[in-house]
Amino acid sequence: MAAAATMAAAARELVLRAGASDLEEEEGPLGGGPGLQEPLQLGELDITSDEFILDEVDVHIQANLEDELVKEALKTGVDLRHYSKQVELELQQIEQKSIRDYIQESENIASLHNQITACDAVLERMEQMLGAFQSDLSSISSEIRTLQEQSGAMNIRLRNRQAVRGKLGELVDGLVVPSALVTAILEAPVTEPRFLEQLQELDAKAAAVREQEARGTAACADVRGVLDRLRVKAVTKIREFILQKIYSFRKPMTNYQIPQTALLKFRFFYQFLLGNERATAKEIRDEYVETLSKIYLSYYRSYLGRLMKVQYEEVAEKDDLMGVEDTAKKGFFSKPSLRSRNTIFTLGTRGSVISPTELEAPILVPHTAQRGEQRKHLESYLADCYDAIAVFLCIHIVLRFRNIAAKREVPALDRYWEQVLALLWPRFELILEMNVQSVRSTDPQRLGGLDTRPHYITRRYAEFSSALVSINQTIPNERTMQLLGQLQVEVENFVLRVAAEFSSRKEQLVFLINNYDMMLGVLMERAADDSKEVESFQQLLNARTQEFIEELLSPPFGGLVAFVKEAEALIERGQAERLRGEEARVTQLIRGFGSSWKSSVESLSQDVMRSFTNFRNGTSIIQGALTQLIQVYHRFHRVLSQPQLRALPARAELINIHHLMVELKKHKPNF
Length: 671
Fold this sequence. Notes:
Blueprint: H1 2-18, H2 20-25, H3 54-65, H4 68-76, H5 80-104, H6 106-175, H7 179-187, H8 193-214, H9 220-248, H10 257-264, H11 267-276, H12 278-307, H13 356-359, H14 366-371, H15 388-407, H16 414-440, H17 456-472, H18 478-499, H19 505-526, H20 532-572, H21 583-611, H22 615-640, H23 657-666
């Protein structure tokens, strides 16, 4: 039925669209006669309307033509008007049939209507129930929120009560005095561990009560009396115990270190006294300090008295200075001078006293040192001491002990170290300035016979300076370096003054080189290679050595050296033509060198060996002289290669430079 109705509707629409003009003239059940003036309302099919669009008509026609029923009708050639009437008739039949079907099923429809109505009533009741449930749930939600708020408030109150309980518990625990504490403080001896434990507990409770009293806690008044009585009892027992131990130090022949060690176990006793009874703590401290001071004083007096017996029999005096000559004489009633003044200017084995091993070694036992014939250099009376190295060693001993005390966190001795240094530094500077003045005022003419060997004053300076520099390296002091610089300047001036006493320049240079070499060698043994003193004397030695080499080569090869310098100067100025007038001189130089160079080199080597005490220094001087000779002869060859002297017949007598080098190597001394 549905398919037939659809087909009929489609056919009717097609007929209406295709024959709209004919339907206007035809009389039918749906319209009036041909004379009716009322227009037909066609809606979208009204082609006379201004709104009609031809493109849309084409689309509708094309869509209807594609319908299967329309296609079938067009293929069979059916009259569309007849077919439309047939379709309408079928629709009416179908409508009548549908009405009959509805009438037949009216009871069922009524029953269905009743059921639907009952269902609506049931659904309405359910809606009412759900609404009640919804209102109940909203009230439950509010009740749950109320319960949550009440639970949070209860939790906060619980935490506050627990916090209060903890604070109150701590307060009560701090204030309550247990019976075990009372029994231990009143009855237990102070040496028992139980007494010490309960004493610590008493100290903690006393501190807690003081803190709570400051906060205004009223409960403290209940235990204050008990704690005060226990504190007085504990202070009394501790005072008697410690004073008894201190008095035991005063017994003759007592090894006070044993009771001292025993007191260390009870160090908390003194802490308790400081916190609870400062007057008693001060009394015990004063008694301990007084007792130990007397003991240490008696020990140091005895120790010092025994040390005085192991001093050096020979000590430096005010006349034992660096610039004092060994031949100086004293008055008839004067004390004999030191057997050798050089000992006070050398470090020797004394430097070992500032080594870490010696600093922390056991102290010297006087009677053992005397019995073993040991001798220690001790400056007991600083005002009469003139040994600068000894005073400087004392300074560095104090500096090192001060560093050790600082590392071990012992500040109690800081003031003592400063006082000792305040005595030592001025004395050291005074002695050093006296030595500087002695060298400055030394007259070389009063030193007796002179020779080119190192002078004893320069040797004193070398040993003295190297000793101070080596000691000063670990803990440098700028003032010391300044004084050593002044002393170095005076020694250099002294060496120049002594050198001026020699008549020949060669002897002066030999003396200077020997002294500079000796001082440099001594300094390099103890001081660093890059020290100021080493660099200064190295420069002086190099300068004087070069000058001596030129002085050494001058007698046998002076003419050759002079000609080479003059010729090179002429060539450099572009006046090489003037060399043509020097042919006779050049010939004489060539033949003279060839005949005498071997003997001259041999004499030169022997002269150097006799002049210098340091064979190694002599070797370097000879090597430098031979090297310079080869260089001069090589330059002589280059001068003779100039066009002005190239045709000189004597050039054939020149010695080959390589042959000369081989021969000179044979004369190189090997010490």
